[in-house]
Amino acid sequence: MVAEIFEFTMPSLGADMDEGKLVEWLVKPGDQVSKGDIVAVVETAKAIMEVECFRPGVVQQIVVEPGTTVPVGAPLARFAALGAPTSPGAAGSEAPAQPEPVAAAAGVSPHGPGPVAHPISATGPLIRRMAAELSVDLATVHGSGRGGAITRADVRRAASESTASRTAARQPHPGARISPYARQLAEQLGVDVSSVHGSGRGGAIRTDDVRAAARAQSEPARSKSGEQPAAAELTAAEPDAAARRAEAARQTTARLMARSKREIPHYYLRTTVDLTEALAWIRERNRELPVNERILPAALFLRATAIAAAHVSRLNGFWQNDQFVPGQAINLGVPVSLRGGGLITPAIMDAGQLRLADLAVRLRDLATRAKAGRLRGSEMTGATITVTNLGDLGVESVYGVIYPPQVALVGVGRIVERPWAVDGLLGVRPVTTVTLSADHRATDGATGARFLDVIGRSLSQPEKL
Amino acid sequence: MTRDKARELMREALRQVAPDADFDTLPAGTSLRDDLELDSLDFENLVTQLSERSAHRIDEDDYPRLATVGDCVDYLAGLEASRL
Amino acid sequence: MSTIETTYREAMRAAIRDALIRDDRVFLMGEDVGRYGGCFAVSLGLLEEFGSDRVRDTPLSESAFVGAGIGAALGGMRPIVEIMTVNFSMLALDQVVNNAATLLHMSGGQLNVPIVIRMTTGAGRQLAAQHSHSLEGWYAHIPGIRIVVPATLEDARGMLWTALADPDPVLIFEPGALYPMKGQLDESVREVDIDRAAIRRPGRDATVITYGATLGTSLAAADALAGEGIDVEVIDLRTLRPLDDATLLDSVTRTHRAVVVDEGWRTGSISAEISARITEQAFYDLDAPVERVCSAEVPMPYPKHLEDAALPQQVDVVAAVRRSIGDGG
Q1: Does ipTM top 0.85?
Q2: Which of A299, A375, C75, C146 has its CA 20 to 30 A from that of C187?
Q3: Is residue A103 within 8 Å of residue B16, measured between CB atoms?
Q4: Bridging pattern class, strands A266-274 and A19-25
């Protein structure tokens, strides 16, 4: 009997994604995969993510080689479907090894040196600073760290190489591979093709690469205002891989946020919440919990938001085709800052079912994987409401921009000590500002007010969290 | 705990949390938050790493004593190996 | 505008019948076109309607009856000569290449040859290696003759009359796989232009250039790709000689990517010619190498699965377009 062949295609890892780069295969022809197994690592404009396969099967053929960028929906590999579900035991034993948890995978990728072309996400501020000081172009540095990450030793090695060879690397190659149309476009747009990374076959520069470079050129350095001055200088001097990536991420965010502000009539509500009880309570809990399960205040707000979203379900879901579509579950979008710069907003799925302690563990896991570039594709698409927390950065309140097509965003500021009156007595208490940005098409202010009220009351009764 | 041991633990823990940071070249005064750009989750992970590697439970009350790379080494070096 | 449901075969027959009615210089001849009704039943019933002077069965000698047709054309008639399949037309190659194609030139413009030669081409019907090849690309090599390939009902109905009106030889290649193709046809269609290629589906991201039986394959591939947000333009060449460069180049200059789909073999094929012209004339507008999807370079196999494997399929076209897009942005 001939097994049905199905194609494993480039998934859409967010409404704003139209193509992705296949970074690494975690399976090879002949491997059997179970539903939910992680089979590949994909890089989008925003992040590197692990991608699951949603049907059991046997890998027949790898269609797209690592390093190739393909549109969403393009086939990446062909699988022979496994008709009858194998017993869990059998499937488990034959399934390819799951990637090791990031924490255990220091130094060396469990899958060998990954063919990661430019693992920018792993290029942290120290590397960027060092590269800037030594005038090393990170795009030309081969990363020897985990998943191809650039280490300090790599930067030093690059710096010690002869000036001549480094200069040569940046000179236009007389034989650079570039499509004729891309060359013509580069001339029209005034793009120096020697600095453009080619994403086509054999590194050929395509028109898309030229357009991206042109956008990067026209975008002044101020767009990187959130980054280190050193990084900004580096970016301005050399449009290297990190800058291109930051640029791509910037463009993606720009499109999404412009769409949000264009389409969504936001209204904003704000309340100040006394956290005395809640903080005391988690402090007590943390004395008992294992160190790696300690509850951060951030988890408090996630839990309170999940409770509020359950009570006021009109704020949990999407505005699509001129109507509100309720979320099937409460999936909390959590913006996470990446060490290489940039922001990514994966979701804690089905957070409505999680108690505070579990949510805290999930938050840590999600943030850790986000920073390590090991998110799953499904985590990038599922958020039904977002909670942004800028408390770490010292601001007191956030009036956020809603992620379309979601209809609400909760903003949490820094926890500060303020004079606070309770029962007619003034005391100094830890308080924070919780804001709600909501889509006026989906709800009215009264709904939003009820939502914030539930958050406030939940935080005052931490034992119920 | 010896100072060398403490440095070794800190080096390993830092490698997990901030892989781009090279412990051996960092001045002791390097701020975890301002220089290494650790956020609260990163910090919590660092504490977890240090706790596990030193077999010493670091309490939240001690967090203020862990502001710089050097602080962490000092803190670890001050631990009695037998404490759990 | 009223339409009728018809087949490619019936549209072809209607075209011959119409020609026989409209012009008494027109006659049909070939192997089994009369009493048998044509090997593919295209001329079924015409002998009964028009008689044996105008629907003539011939001996099994392609060279002889094509030569007779050329003679009749020189004598003022408007013959439609049917050759059963393109493979058998090899036997008449001398007449086509050395006489029909050359006489106008060699006579200093005194002798034109208004003959129309029809033949079946292509595979897909399990007729094996002696009845299934696509050699129209060869004929397109020859100056002095025009090569047309109707791929739609409208062209099946309309190309013949235009071909008969041409003062010089026209070869019509009818993809055998299309004879049963059903569809709606505008009843008023009588003759169609045979000078221009047709954009059968407009698109932005890539141009698929094809003709004949692979038009359907290409359109299906374009539909499949549309589901992924890839917007493919599909061009039906219609006439392989002379090629309508303007339409092709205009399209490729817009999309910057070209995929040529040709049921013929790749080597020395019409697809090679098209690729060369694009490279010659639109090189600086290309964002990816020209892709080609052709038949496997083997004599056409008989077993269904092998024949399918040898022919350009929808998945092959989809893959080629993806290569082009993937490589070209």
Answers
A1: no
A2: C146
A3: yes
A4: unpaired
